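In this section we walk through a basic example: taking a raw amino acid sequence and producing a predicted 3D structure, encoded as discrete structure tokens. The instruction is simple. Fold the sequence below.
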Amino acid sequence: MARLSPTSGVSRSSVEKTPELVSLGRIGSPYGVKGWFKLVSHTQPRENILSYKLFTGSLNGVLKALEMDDGKPHGKGLIAHLVGFDTPEDIRQITGMDLMVPLSDLPRLDAGDYYWHQLAGLQVINIAGQLLGRIDCLMETGANDVMVVKPCEGSVDKHQRLIPWLPDQVIVEVDPDSDSVKVDWEADYLI
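The resulting token sequence is shown next.
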């Protein structure tokens, strides 16, 4: 059934996207004295972001073309370097910047697999036909991913729900073309 491939994760709701761009990560704090920085990756596995070299950086609504010339795993995380950013002071100016790529640069997924950004905003309807809300974001947990479903116009109530992404158990059907995810989840579960 439907598998998820996160490329953005932020509380996944802070995934910054435009019609053509999606965030793969962001620039963390400086690392060392030669312009390296901690790289926060939203890809799965996290090292996948290192296969991209050209990014559109976005910070406070300002876009900037960036080129990553080096990056590697370091401890439990990643570190990287950008062309033209050679000091910790350079990095401090862009700390927090989202690193985005065109949607067309993402690998194609098999049928039934989805990137998180494809699910954000879809209606969540249970098998009884009740509208539970819309997917605000997805988040990783140790056991499984979880949909954060926020109430919307027409939803059964005003409760936010955390619904586990469990294909063949909770997730019955995903249909982005009809703007919906069908779930086996009662309206009064865990509220």
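Looking at the output, two observations stand out. The first helix runs from residue 88 to 94. The chain has two domains: 3-108, 121-183. In the next section we compare this with other chains.
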